[in-house]
Amino acid sequence: MEKKLPGVFSAQKKDGTVYYRSSITHKQKHISLGSYDTSSKAFAAYLEASSLILDKALSLKDYSDHRILSFAKWISLINYRDNGIYISTPIYLHPRYFEYILSPDLILKFDIDDLFYYSKHKIMLRGRHFFVADYGMQVNIANRYGIKNYAVMGRDYRFVNGDPYDFRYENIEIYNTYHGVIKKNTKKGIRYVSRIHINGNYTIGTYTTDTEAAIAYNKAIDILKKAGVTKNFIPNYLDGLSPSAYADLYTKIHISPKITNYRLE
Asked: Which of 19, 84, 112, 229 could form a disulfide with 224 if both were Cys (CB 3.0 to 4.6 A apart)?
């Protein structure tokens, strides 16, 4: 009979294949360490977790591909050791913020207010964007901070301290909130240019408020649809504006003749 190893439990897949689960209990907290194809690997994971929890000298810098535990589990255990809170996602807590550590070289920062959300949602990197799976869909996390999918850094928003991985609210400044609206500094002061893309960029008009520019964009969409344009434009939604106020502005706002006279070629 095989000797039972601490923290190792055998299990069977549906096809009858035996595998081994590893776990550790520390301060009455039971933590799963993953599944392995051999009992020796499962036991090695248990020993590695034990060392990590007991030895405060071990840190993020000590992780390598030769470790048994996954990188995310390594971070979760370090956070549990140092802060007394176990979080299944790779989060490390600081007094006023937390880090979501995707790799030793890729560390995101968030306000503590976002801790519950990211403790339940795994962040993934696709291209240059960070996503979470939410209700079966991949959601760009930048949307949580008012950054639209079409937004361009430096034009529509900026990271105040220059760190594009720092998603703390005070570090994100939004310039342009609405689709098709760009904020401009002119000799007459701040103005908002509304543009729409058909077979190229068309200027709808320049307005004194972003609300007017956003409504102008919506009005341009309506005009273009009547002209037979079938492109799937996304209209702006203006919270806090009553239907009557919206209708009044919609009627008064001037639209460029390039839009009102647009015809399909």
From this structure: 229
